[in-house]
What we know:
Number of helices: 4
Radius of gyration: 24 Å
Low-confidence stretches: 1-66
Number of strands: 40
Shape: globular
CATH architecture of the largest domain: 7 Propeller
Largest sheet: 8 strands, mixed
Helix content: under 10%
Strand content: 35-45%
CATH topology of the largest domain: Methylamine Dehydrogenase, Chain H
Amino acid sequence: MQYRMQYRTCASFGPVIAAGAVIGVLMLAGCSTGGVAAHAPSDAGAGGLIPPIPALPAGPRTAGTLQGQPPEPIDLTADGVAVWNSATATIIDTRRFDPQIQVLEPFKGEPDRVKNYLPPHGRDAAIPRGEPFAFDVGGVRPVDRIVPGADFPGISQTPWVPPDQSLAVGPDHIVSTVNMSIAFYQKDGTLDFSSRLDSTGSPGFFEGVGGRDFTFDPKCFYDQFSGRFFVLALEVYDNPGQGEAWITVAVSDDSDPNGIWYKYRTWAVTSVDTSRYWVDYPGIGFDGQAFYVTGNLFLLSGPGDGFAGVLYRTFDKTPMLSGDPVTFADIRGASSASVQVAQSFGTPPGTYFLSVRNSTSLRIQTIESPLTSPTLRTAVLGVPAISSPDDAPSPGGGLISTLDGRIMNVQWRDGMIYAAHGIQVSGKAQARWYQIDTRGWPAGPSPALVQSGNVDAGPGVYTFFPAIASNRFGNVAMVMAASSASEFASVQATGRLRTDPPGTMGSPTQLTIGSRGADGRWGDYFYIALDPNDDTTFWMIGQVQEPFGWQTWIQSFTVGCPADVNGDGSIDVGDFFAFVVLFSTGDPAADFDGDGTLDVLDFFAFVSAFAQGCG
């Protein structure tokens, strides 16, 4: 199913007090539609694409002069033993940035690989062979489960690839990050703020806290426990004789990103015996008491192994909410790699971490007593066979790297872990997802696999970069990239109702598609989040390829069926009254016949959809 959003402008309608008044209101009111291109400019609001402007090449990145003596490396020689440190905040008000919107147009020119400015790094990413695990793998059912909502273009191409895009969704605003920019949007796509993350901004978002001209791998989330946005970026500088590495984070002072942020630049050079390591490919997550960051440890200097496992960093959340000094604990997991952190909804017994262990198992971990005596615990979960996915074809481009089968994201809700990654099935890359019952572990028995499925979008179509989440009704959504030898890379979504057969997702829905071929390390991952206003609506960010380069795309959607207006996964009288409210307020979502006008025909279209149920 292909979907293309239209921008609608509607008059406001008086409230409908009784359902019986619906037809009268429908017959008196109208709504006009003006179609716009599927891709609008990154500063939102107008139709069409902004032509790119010339810009200088990225150029070499330099560390500059480190003020004072660099801190000693954090000694993580002892595997699994916590080491404590602290950091103070720099308080910065983004409303003082001038101009507020620094980045308006796509970068024109050949973007440079982030990897080219990092110390040499690599690890054996081959998935070890494991013992077979018998478990049925589900697939795709021919039902539509995605009901698209608002959409708008996000940040356009910067001087860097891949973009590594992420987004965080608050009550009224969306924060998005890429290599190496940040933007704040209203939920209708209005751009409030944009700047570079590094010191090439005017100023850069992390410049005031000490960040220099090379931040990378940014990520963000919205913490519904505290009502705050959290932004992270890494830094590494391979200076002769001494290297630098930083994990730089920022926490907003409330649920509006426009304003005060508490920013912490935390040292991230670690040592194992006599060798020093830096942090790459972060995972981020949260629960009610802490913020968590993970990252791969690669050699910075010394004779040691090129890869030393994973850093697990735990930040005490409470002081960060008021800009006070924070203590944080570091643990090294020597046997882990590319670990993702759960973003928790509900009250978990602890935050969970997930990574691929071998071809038939995942590694599930938690940190017990994270704020007092952190201890890393590990359990092994058998899963259907995993193998690294092939790169995806793209017409007019080349082969898009789908990475190495690493876990892409993790969510915990009400005792269940939801996670996704790319694997190789039937000769092509396919998105794979899991639902895992944590069963109270580590206090209870080991976690158990509940269901799992692959998303096959059709012959010759590769699906990759999946991100998954569940809402308060137990309905699940997944966003992913798709491409083939004859179709440009697109952004697609699928979902399942809690009542659907185990292991199944609905048919993928195309949300948007690019107009050019792509290749290489193009995206790395997509991202998904829940709207905290209803804990039902999903928001995602993906990307496509346009004539000027990569373009991120932000969209909301619900999982259900067209008449499931309240998004609870079932059709009942509640949806009828929800439709009345939408129509009475002139909401474009009430245009059920899709003609751009709110009238009696939309009422009949809704009744028809209501009668069809959810399939």
